[in-house]
Amino acid sequence: MVYYLQTLPVLFIIGVTIRLTKSSFCHESEEVKLNCVGIFEIVHKCNAEFIQNAMTTADPFTLCTNDFSFRAYRITMKYYDRLFSTHDPKNESALCSDQYLNKNKMNVITSLIGNSKNLWTTANCDQCYNTLSSTSKNFTTSTEDFLNSLQLLTNCIDKVTNISFVCNKCETHYQTLNGIYERIKTSSNNKICFDLEDKMNKTRRDWSGVYKCCRDKRDSLTAFYSLATTIFIIAVSFYSVVYFVGSNYPERNVLDEREVAICRRSEIRDSAQPGQSSNMSSFDRNNLESQKKSTEQDNSDNEPLILSSPLNQALERLN
Ligand SMILES: *[C@@H]1O[C@H](CO)[C@@H](O)[C@H](O)[C@H]1NC(C)=O
Ligand SMILES: *[C@@H]1O[C@H](CO)[C@@H](O)[C@H](O)[C@H]1NC(C)=O
Ligand SMILES: *[C@@H]1O[C@H](CO)[C@@H](O)[C@H](O)[C@H]1NC(C)=O
Ligand SMILES: *[C@@H]1O[C@H](CO)[C@@H](O)[C@H](O)[C@H]1NC(C)=O
After folding, report:
1. Which residues, including other chains, have CB under 8 Å from residue 143's CB and lie 6 or more apart?
2. Which of 68, 125, 218, 232 is the S-S candidate for 64 at Cβ 3.0 to 4.6 Å?
3. Amino acid 74: pLDDT
């Protein structure tokens, strides 16, 4: 019992410390019906935290993805908007914004909030997230992919002991990261969340400047692409030649066969005709045959010559 009583002051001090720490940092209020003073307190605390974070996350630029600046920014804007929708309990016809904003020509609060907003939108920070106003972090899938891929590349580079092996060992990780980045760039119309843009810029600079990967790689890549193109062109030409020739030959064969068939049929008809026309006079027949012989002699060069050669004539006479 005495022991428990002794620990009470200690617990009290811890409790007070936690409460003080919590209230001095930017956080949302659990109270549903917050008055103007409460809302304004959150706005100025969170905006101060955001600006402080912006100073420390400027280079390397991590303003958008940093936990504290993200939360501070989203809470600032959420409660700043509430100033324009919450009524002053002392004067129901007035809004909280009437009490705090535009009191004189300096418009200090509007101007400072405007600065934060400008910083956030110029950096395209919302592009990193799925929602435009939620105060809980929800990265887009492509942001997650990019950050994971960058982590893999960083791990890979950290593991390599000799810097001259980085290009070889981590090339695939680098190309994957590059691919994801280019896809984000295209799909967002070049409005890339600046955290990613800055990370990619530094990664590319290190890749060519520190690890000296790009120059040789590009040369060999160019050689590879030109070789691949040449092979591709040759293959395409070869296959198109094979295709056209291959597709023409069977057609021509079919035609040839058809022509041959037609020719044979007409030959058969021609040779059958003299026999069929039995009422043809012998004079006509002799005439026809002599005509045929003369055309044969005119048209063909070799056979009639052989037939009319002296040797053949001698042989005929012997018969
Ligand atoms: C209440 O607010 C309105 C609008 O800002 C203002 O015109 C009016 O004078 C205020 N009334 C009092 C009693 O402060
Ligand atoms: C994050 O956003 C996606 C898409 O808008 C949604 O499906 C998911 O539930 C969200 N996750 C959280 C934790 O809010
Ligand atoms: C790294 O590797 C290169 C090539 O094999 C070698 O010339 C160089 O001495 C190595 N450097 C270190 C620090 O081991
Ligand atoms: C990328 O880095 C270079 C060198 O530091 C810098 O001059 C350039 O502005 C950077 N590009 C972007 C888009 O930040």
Report:
1. 65, 128, 129, 184, 193, 196
2. 125
3. 97
